[in-house]
TrEMBL record:
This is Niemann-Pick disease, type C1. InterPro entries: HMGCR/SNAP/NPC1-like_SSD, NPC1-like, NPC1_MLD, NPC1_N, SSD. Belongs to the patched family. It comes from the Eukaryota. The gene is NPC1. Residues 512-677 form the SSD domain. It comes from Sparus aurata.
Amino acid sequence: MIIVFLFSLCQVEAQHCVWYGECGESEKVPGKKYNCKYTGPAVPLPSEGSDLCPACFFNLMNLFCELTCSPHQSQFMNATAFNGTNVVEVQYYVGQAFANGEFTIDATPVALCMINLLCHFFTLDVPVSGYTPMNNKTYNCTEGLEDGSGPCSCQDCAAACGPKPVPPPLPPPWTILGMDAMTVIMWISYMIFLLIFVGAVLGACLSPILVNASCCETLGARFENYLRILFSSWGSFCVRHPSVVILGSLILVVASSGGLYYMQITTDPVELWSSPTSQARQEKDYFDSHFGPFFRTAQLIITTPLNDTFLYSPYFGGSDVPFGAILDKDILHQVLDLQLDIEGLVASYEGQKVTLKDICLAPLAPYNDNCTILSVLNYFQNSHAVLDHTIGDEFYVYADFHSHFLYCVSAPASLNDTTLLHDPCLGTFGGPIFPWLAMGGYDETNYNNATALVITFPINNYLNDTARLGKALAWEKEFIKFMKNYKNPNLTIAFNAERSIEDEIDRESNSDISTIVISYAIMFVYISLALGHIHSFRRVMVDSKISLGIAGILIVLSSVSSSLGIFSYFGIPLTLIVIEVIPFLVLAVGVDNIFIIVQTYQRDERMPQEELHQQIGRILGDVAPSMFLSSFSETVAFFLGALSNMPAVRTFSLFAGLAVFIDFLLQISCFVSLLGLDARRQEGNRLDIVCCVKLPEGQETKTDSFLFRFFKKVYAPFILKEWVRPIIVAVFVGMLSFSIAVVNKVEIGLDQKLSMPDDSYVLDYFKNLTEYLHTGAPVYFVVEDGLNYSSPEGQNVVCGGVGCNNNSLVQQVYAASLIMSFTFTSSTTVAFTPSSWLDDYFDWVKPQSTCCRYYNTTGAFCNASVVNPSCVHCRPMTPSGKQRPVGDDFMRFLPMFLSDNPNVKCGKGGHAAYATAVDLYPDNTGVGATYFMTYHTILKESPDYIHALKMARNLADNITQSTNHKVFAYSVFYVFYEQYLTIAHDTALNLGASLASIFVVTTVLLGFELWSAVIVSMTIAMILVNMFGVMWLWSISLNAVSLVNLVMSCGISVEFCSHIVRAFSISVKKNRVERAEEALAHMGSSVFSGITLTKFGGILILALSKSQIFQVFYFRMFLAIVLLGATHGLIFLPVLLSYIGPSVNKAKVFASNQRYAGTEREPLLNY
């Protein structure tokens, strides 16, 4: 046939038909027939309509009906070629006005699809004069028809949608004079601070004014004295009765650790990162309970190292089409071989054989048990023979896999490609393979330019069926093993299974065990050796404290096991974060306290008439309040951190808080008893470890340790020099200003690549996923139970066809998909119009369709492929029958639609596409929850996923408001990324609560010295803010793992600061500088050797880990915590105290003078 467009009117003499009816078989298209030559009058036809876009359908039918059955055919048609009575060719003259109306007004997805289908049969030729062109009236898609039909819907008519949605413009970056505003503000603030600081240093007198003790000072001194007496008495008891204390401690530890028998370790990512009460978790549970859990997947992304491209020249004319190397037929055959090999894999589970068919998603089962395989090869029915199918002769190829491919990517649900092949495009499983899911690396919609093939095997998931889930896991394991061993020089394959990430994390954890063991071993060796203070080479084994150090380490580990056991009794599961981080934390806190106790004892001189138990009791009375201050502050801070909504943070905080407090209790009891035993051993000149061996008596001179002498004679005087102190303040305030300027620039999220080992095959998959794929994860817009779909009002707020509301669910999601910018900041992240079971049901049930039929004898459903005279249409061919079904009719036929399998006679059957999308009430009495599925745009990095979640929720909220019914968006990744919507708020809340608790506890335990508590809290706050600066510099993102580390850094910072501040507060030197120097000399060396050196060696080993997450979130953050804590506690804090430290507590000075009356010893030196 030839369509000819004419621009002038021509007259003809007669008005009659030129053809009618069907005659002989077509020679070119098997199965099709020619029209018969006929010049008589027109034969009347029954009228039928459509509930698609009325104007577009009318225009299209006008074009087609005038061609096939107009009573005036002879005016604009000319039969030009015959084969007997068969009409082989006609000329069809169409006027320009009609052509303009047809091809411009109807330029909608539905109309273009139909017009393109017709144009496949028509070719343009030179017009022939003598005929009047057909120039019937056309209707605009925004116009109603004369029969009362309304205008088209938004999906069918862009003009009916109103203005195209445009995303709001991005807010411009906050700048001042073209520079980042925060940077400018902090620079100005820093310069102002320096001016004020210099002026204050030069012009102000910062020395304390001595006055009589205030009420608070007296109260603080009494509280301090009470704690001293309490801990002194307890320490003396522990040394006098070591067996009772040690045995009692051992019994309590064993009883507490017994809970480890009930220990459960949570590895489920959902349980780790999503609270059961969170919105995403509740929505996931709702989705799973109504529609079943989201399926598992095994996926291949296949590329080829070959660079050959080739051109396909269609036989029937048209431009040449370039094809990428991955679509070469030989390559496709190799890929199909691989796909068939995977389909044939056999795994073993508990003695049973497991194949893909046992676990795969088969939507048409049991009628069709073929697995869903989303692959380009499914266009060819996963068959080598269909892939090789060609039509041609010895000279030309008329149709082959090229033409079939080009047709299928534009009509993937077709059961007949309309080429000479007449092969189906529909997959063997009964559903379409959308090209954007099966290919990657193409531009726009030119799928022939694809550089990658994507093969996806959806696998059924199971909520509470461990046996069937075990089969799926077994097959996935076999799949991974097969792919690791697969080799083909022409194919480069990245692959992933549902279990891959968890498997790789487990492998990573096992490989890191050696790294962690070496790290802790280094710290243990250091502690054991550093506790001893060797006076001479002769007494090396006497003065060493290896056994005491090992005992101290065992106490630390016992506190950890006790904490784990106690919570295990209560059924609280552990997480990997707890196991990996808490020993590090408790070791930092515990070892610091051990060094303080031991080194204070080593520096102490026993008073005349004082026994060992009294000496150790007195020492414990001096140092235990400081230990209690730090430990109790940390415990309260951690327990407040348990208020977090994130399970991983909450669990860590609970376990850490209890472990720190148990460690403190064991140190002031069991460790003190062990210290007493070790002191007796040392006084008796017995060797360490081999305590039965005794050295002969000898005169030994007691000396201070090198580290203590260095801090007292060199370090402390240097940093407190008049010219050094201002430099230190300027540097640290500069660091703080920088960190504040970049705190809002720290990236939020967790790059999933960091969770994988360096040598993981999953990294290649992530890389290819980002590089090639064009479509993201499926997203479901779930309409909760309660909407009345049987009423027109309920239907109109959801559907997307004629008569539906312009702000219905389908219309709003469609409008969101029109914003096709793939720029992160402007995309709505919705890629396509949603699949609508309701609109497809309306098409399926209409009387013009052959789909909805039932046996008039039984009322049972009759499939369209059944030939039986007792099968009748569901609805009559009447005006009311052509309307949407409502009331009882709606529910009568809906179950039939949901059970109907697509076939050649009816492709609209809803079984494959919507069987799980509609949750019917028992006995099919109504519709409960339903979903409408579409896809996200491609999501590459964490910010993309967070943005997609945010935009989908905004869209769902808008739909909820317009429909007045609850609608939410659900995708499988939402439970993992929801935490990032509020993580900035959660971080501020957790750290703020921790700082507040530290302030309160410090205020009380320092004897109600408010200003001391302010200084401690301010220094810890500086450390935390500087941690954010390090995170920005070192590319550490803010997520649950880094938040745990920040909470931990808050606790460790207490150790760096509280001991120094307490030593300063009880010093009786005459001015702040001398008091700061004394506090730093006596406490600084213990803090430095107890935390900084202990941790430094262990942390450096973590850099050797194969795990990227260890390198980033443990090595980098732990190193930053120790370095920032040490520099602030041992450099900045003493200088700060020398300027604005609290005045001497006169009541404490008086009490100290009375306590040491008659001695020549300085109180702080004994401390």
